[in-house]
Amino acid sequence: MPFATIVVPAYNAAVTLSETLESLMAQTFRDMEIVVVDDGSTDKTAQIAQFYVRRDPRIRVVNQINRGLAGARNSGIAAARGEVIGFCDADDLWRPEKLATHIAHLKASPEVGLSYSGSALIDEDSRLLGHAQRPRLHRVNAAHVFKRNPIGNGSAPVIRRAVLDAIAWRPATETLRDWVFDETFRQSEDIECWLRIALLTDWIIEGVPGLLTEYRVNSTGLSANVSAQLASWERMVAKLRPAAPSFFARHEATARAYQLRYLARRAISSGDGETALDHVTRAFTESRRPLIEEPLRSLTTWAAAHALSRFGDAPINFARTVLRTARA
Amino acid sequence: MSALPHVLHLVDDATPGGVTRVLAHIQSCPLMAKAGRHSVRVISRTGQLPKCDADMIVSHLSLNWRRMPALIGFRARHATTPLIHVEHSYTAMFTAINVRSKLRFFTMLRTAYALFDTVVAVSDAQAKWLTERRLVSSQSLRVIAPVVDLAGFRALPAPQGTPKVIGAIGRLHRQKGFDVLIKAFRALPNPDLALHIHGTGPDEDALKALAGDDPRIRFFGHAQRSEDVMETVDIVAMPSRWEAFGLVALEARAAGRPLICAPSDGLSMSAGPNARYVKGLGATAWSAALLDMVQQVSPLSETDRVSACESEFAASWQDLIDRHTSPAGETGTVLVQAA
């Protein structure tokens, strides 16, 4: 039995899957298996996965008709044999020491159930963008998870199976296997799961230093789903509120403000000044806490949203170009 | 044969709840009287703990950092007296929902439990948690499920016909999850169903507001005799967010009432294998499960009505008392010293 399983949900990932798998095969921690879940891909994902199965006996493939990211992860968890389970989406990369680092962390800290790290952001061509997610690593409680999601993205955490077992359930409509991620969510499925771990189990969530994941961001099509993303975030809140009403009474407004600020930043990235301004205004109407807790980030978001809506995206693009040139 | 050992029970929560009722049972049960002379002392939640003269002291106290100095002093002044702690409150789900700094909380528990010769868990789930979190070493851990006098519940006839009255019994506190139950119940279309809520507590107003003008939901306050309450309900619902054991579940089984509950902590033990478990506290899932339950023609009721639990409880305590109070040479004390 391998000690660790890495679940790779893959949907039409023919372009990126090979790079992802090679980054996983190169992990310095060797006692592991890789479960690729081909989530009903219509491109060459299946063939590429099979190609790697022949190259490395530690790789297995699970095929299913499309169920979405959460459904693919759940199938991967059901097929996993490891005591700890990591996730790496089929367009992200793991740096070679990632699995070893998390496993050392989990072995040294028996109370820690979910170990995560920061991520470096890469573009479509796997070039480092120079940006990173550098989350808070220690003394993380449910409020931190709710407000700032330090775990960051779906390719960051490595989780004990016991944690996933503790939050798993079998919906009445499901006949095959348990759900860990909620498959009714098409967005916010990560944070919904992490927050359930934080609220409904007594496992500690903790980070390790370093940017051990390379997380791919696409520049296209960001703004269009800002409102859909907010809607699914609200649905998550409505779903989890009964589990801990007093927690939500205390933190919901602030968390919503952070969420709105995050969506404003995404709107800024895609040059949608109107959406950005709308969201940043709503954010600080909802709660002033982000201004107190993270003044710099809050004020730059506010200023950028105003600048973008007033002057268009030329100044921001100019600033970006300058920054990129300066870095290069 | 010398006189029976004097077992002193310390408690700091004298409100009419589970702990008080279990202690009343310990003092009144004839089987328990065979194991020792039991007395109960109610002490303050703060300040020093008294010097006690007994052959064995059982703490039913609530542990916290503030209590720690007093607890250490108490251990020092009773260095040769066996000290037992019964953990009535803390569980995995309690920690998940209520504790902000989990590591600090675990350190507190580990430190406090280390002062006792034996720690008694009230359910298998709690014991599993205490072991997995390395809060108590497995050799100083025991599981003794609490019990009260169930004769009055066993005497009740099992409910007949289609179930009509869903009972929610317990403190009106978010722990019990009655808010979820009220929401789930309000979504049921059946006009002839009723939800009867028995108990008082800090959330009474909020729960009444949640019940709104639904005439099927009634609040009854706290009843003197639990048997009388149990007699009036057909189904018992326990959507608890955390529950170290859940005596109401045991009483419902003794009374032959079907149970629907959350699988929180000790409830999976006290509610038994025949209970209907609803995972997660979603009102929709609870509505569906309630509907399914009231539509069952013959509610499955426990045939044995947990007949053995009082004797098992007494036997477990007898064993624990013997182990700690019988003369050295054949007891566990020696093993511990040798180790």
Describe the structure.
The complex is a heterodimer of chains A (328) and B (339). By secondary structure, chain A is an alpha/beta fold. Chain A folds into two domains: 4-216, Spore Coat Polysaccharide Biosynthesis Protein SpsA, Chain A (Alpha-Beta Complex); 223-327, no CATH class. Helix content of chain A is 48%, strand content 18%. The longest helix of chain A is centred in the last third of the chain and has 25 residues, at 245-269. Chain B is built from 15 helices and twelve strands. In chain B, helix 12 (267-270) links the parallel strand 11 (259-261) and strand 12. Chain B starts with 5 loop residues before the first strand and ends with a helix. Classes of the chains: A alpha/beta (328), B alpha/beta (339). The A-B interface holds A 110-111, 139, 141, 143, 162, 169-170, 172, 199-202, 204, 239, 242-247 and B 92-93, 95-97, 99-103, 106, 129, 132-134, 174, 177, 179-180, 183, 241, 279-283, 288. Chain A: Its EC number is 2.4.-.-.
Radius of gyration of chain A: 20 Å
Q: What structural class is derived from the secondary structure elements of chain A?
A: alpha/beta
Supply the number of helical segments of chain B. Answer: 15
In the predicted model, the low-confidence regions of chain A spanning at least 5 consecutive residues are none
**Share of residues in helices of chain A:** 40-55%
Total domain count of chain A: 2
Shape of chain B: globular
EC number (chain B): 2.4.-.-
Keywords (chain B): Glycosyltransferase, Transferase
Enzyme class (chain B): transferase
Domain Glycosyltransferase subfamily 4-like N-terminal (chain B): 37-150
